[in-house]
C-alpha cells in the first residue's frame, strides 16, 4: 500500500541519516515478506504519484547495508523490494517470483534489470516471462539470496547485517 511504501521510505531516510544506525533489516509481517501490490489500486491517483521503483532505488542507494528477511512469499513488487536490498536472507519455506506477467503486466520497479544482474540472463528471463515462483533453496543456488535458514529469519538477517 501507499502507506507502507511511504513509511518504509521515511524510516530508510531516517536510518541513513542517523550515525548510530549501522545497518537496516527489512521484514514483512505475519510470516510474509510481501505479496506485492494490489492491482486494484493501480488506477488510484495516490498510487500514480508514488513510485515503487524510486523506493527500491532508495533502498539500493542507502549508505548502510540493507538486508531483506524473506519469510513466506516475496512476489512481484515484494521481490523487487528485496532485489533493492544489499543482502537477502530467506526462510527455507519462502517462495519468490514475479507473477504479474501472468496478468499481462511487466515488473514495474526495475526487477527486470536487477534480477538478471543477480542470477544471470537465462534464469532471470525464465522467471520474468513465466511468472514462475522459486523456492528459497533454488534462489540460493541461483544467487538470488545470500543465505537460507530454518530458524527465525529476522534474527538471521540481523546477524548478517551486524556482520557486514
TrEMBL record:
Family recorded in the similarity comment: Belongs to the enoyl-CoA hydratase/isomerase family.
Catalysed reactions, semicolon-separated: (3E,5Z)-tetradecadienoyl-CoA = (2E,5Z)-tetradecadienoyl-CoA; (3E,5Z)-octadienoyl-CoA = (2E,5Z)-octadienoyl-CoA; (3Z)-hexenoyl-CoA = (2E)-hexenoyl-CoA; (3E)-decenoyl-CoA = (2E)-decenoyl-CoA
UniProt GO molecular function: (3S)-3-hydroxyacyl-CoA dehydrogenase (NAD+) activity; delta(3)-delta(2)-enoyl-CoA isomerase activity; enoyl-CoA hydratase activity
Keyword Ion transport carried by entry: no
InterPro entries: ClpP/crotonase-like_dom_sf, Enoyl-CoA_hyd/isom_CS, Enoyl-CoA_hydra/iso
Stored CDD domains: crotonase-like
Listed name of the protein: Peroxisomal bifunctional enzyme
Record key words, sorted: Isomerase, Lyase, Multifunctional enzyme
Gene3D superfamilies in UniProt: 2-enoyl-CoA Hydratase, Chain A, domain 1
Keyword match Secreted: no
Source lineage: Eukaryota, Metazoa, Chordata, Craniata, Vertebrata
GO CC annotations, alphabetized: peroxisome
GO BP annotation list: fatty acid beta-oxidation
Pfam families per UniProt: ECH_1
Amino acid at each position: 500500500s501507499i502507506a507502507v511504501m511511504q513509511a518504509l521510505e521515511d524510516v530508510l531516510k531516517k536510518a541513513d541519516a542517523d550515525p548510530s544506525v549501522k545497518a537496516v533489516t527489512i521484514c514483512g509481517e505475519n510470516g510474509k515478506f510481501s505479496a506485492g501490490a494490489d492491482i486494484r489500486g493501480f488506477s488510484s491517483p495516490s498510487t500514480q504519484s508514488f513510485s515503487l521503483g524510486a523506493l527500491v532505488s532508495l533502498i539500493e542507494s542507502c549508505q548502510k547495508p540493507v538486508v531483506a528477511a524473506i519469510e513466506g512469499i516475496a512476489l512481484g513488487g515484494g521481490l523487487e523490494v528485496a532485489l533493492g536490498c544489499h543482502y537477502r536472507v530467506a526462510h527455507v519455506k519462502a517462495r519468490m517470483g514475479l507473477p504479474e506477467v501472468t496478468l499481462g503486466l511487466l515488473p514495474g520497479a526495475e526487477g527486470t534489470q536487477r534480477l538478471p544482474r543477480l542470477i544471470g540472463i537465462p534464469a532471470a528471463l525464465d522467471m520474468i516471462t513465466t511468472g514462475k515462483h522459486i523456492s528459497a533453496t533454488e534462489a540460493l543456488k541461483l544467487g538470488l539470496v545470500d543465505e537460507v535458514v530454518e530458524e527465525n529469519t529476522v534474527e538471521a538477517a540481523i546477524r548478517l547485517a551486524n556482520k557486514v
